Automatic annotation (TrEMBL):
This is AraC-like DNA-binding protein. InterPro entries: AraC-bd, AraC_XylS_family_regulators, Homeodomain-like_sf, HTH-like, HTH_AraC. The keyword DNA-binding applies. SMART domains: HTH_ARAC. It comes from the Bacteria. Residues 199-296 form the HTH araC/xylS-type domain. GO terms for molecular function: DNA-binding transcription factor activity; sequence-specific DNA binding. The keyword Transcription applies. Keywords: DNA-binding, Transcription, Transcription regulation. Residues 1-19 have a biased composition (Low complexity). Gene3D superfamilies: Homeodomain-like. Residues 1-22 are annotated as: Disordered. It comes from Acidovorax soli.
Length: 300
């Protein structure tokens, strides 16, 4: 909502597309923060996660998503809080659809704002492990929502990067202070034998994203049967191996596109059957087509 998804301000509403489903992204010029403003009536996000923290507010309608083993419904004014690498999906809760704004904030910035000196050390999963986490993915917090809306408005303003980062920091620190804790609540943190096996599988997917990966190849890495592999991976990471592989491919494609790669070449290099396959998966996770996403990210 991961995919990779800001509050509509007067400066951005005039440029919003006229179609019923629209999404506009704006990166902060100083880096580390990206804003997404969107409204969807038909689009459904595939299961995915973000490398960054994601803090959002539902502006209108009902936004539903599955996260941490439960289905959640976010109403207008509710605050959505996703930790880095926290799997979720997203879709409308009513025929009217939903509008929302969300800020994606790099973990390194959050650690600096929170004064986390041990952030680089990580923990059991190395640099995948942050130090502070949101306890719940959905909260009703009018004061927090107001701070978040102020951050969204500031990031949306051109030539106001300093103000945007200051407001984002204020919102993030407040939300983590109210709704955060110093442990990962949605997944096991210990490196037991089972988790070590799944870590090997994830590393294999990270390294072989361009290949046509088979369940047997993953089962061999884990030393498990093919039937057990998918269940064990999903139980550990909250998404099936194919969903994780698609997510890795999309992240690789985003990086390649920003380096100037042609869409067809990027599709081939990142494990997609063709350009159409990339576009379909990209929209499923990010909410917009690759070319539109790239144009928005470059115009920010």
């Amino acid at each position: 909502m991961h995919a990779g998804d800001p509050s509509a301000s007067s400066s951005s509403s005039s440029s919003q597309p006229s179609q019923r489903d629209w999404a506009e992204m704006r990166p902060l010029a100083s880096g580390g923060v990206t804003l997404l403003n969107a409204h969807f009536t038909q689009h459904r996000f595939e299961r995915h996660s973000h490398e960054a923290y994601s803090i959002g507010v539902t502006r209108s309608g009902v936004q539903t998503f599955a996260c941490r083993g439960a289905r959640h419904a976010s109403l207008a004014g509710d605050v959505i809080l996703f930790n880095p690498d926290e799997p979720h999906d997203g879709s409308r809760g009513t025929d009217a659809g939903f509008g929302y704004s969300i800020l994606y904030v790099d973990a390194a910035l959050v650690h600096a704002w929170m004064g986390d000196r041990d952030a680089a050390g990580g923990g059991g999963d190395g640099n995948r492990m942050a130090t502070r986490y949101f306890k719940a993915p959905l909260v009703h917090d009018p004061e927090g929502a107001l701070l978040l809306q102020q951050a969204v408005a500031a990031v949306a303003e051109r030539q106001e990067s300093l103000h945007g980062e200051e407001r984002t920091a204020a919102a993030m620190v407040a939300l983590l202070g109210r709704h955060g804790e110093l442990r990962r609540p949605w997944a096991a943190t210990g490196l037991d034998a089972g988790r070590q096996r799944m870590s090997l599988v994830r590393e294999y997917l990270d390294a072989h994203f361009a290949d046509d990966v088979t369940v047997q190849a993953l089962a061999t890495q884990a030393g498990l049967s093919r039937a057990h592999l998918t269940r064990a991976f999903t139980a550990t990471y909250g998404m099936a191996p194919h969903a994780y592989l698609n997510m890795v491919r999309i992240r690789q494609a985003q990086a390649a596109l920003r380096r100037g790669g042609a869409l067809a070449d990027v599709a081939a290099a990142c494990g997609f059957a063709d350009q159409s396959h990339l576009t379909r998966r990209f929209k499923g996770q990010v909410g917009v087509a690759p070319a539109r996403w790239l144009a928005q990210m470059q115009s920010g």
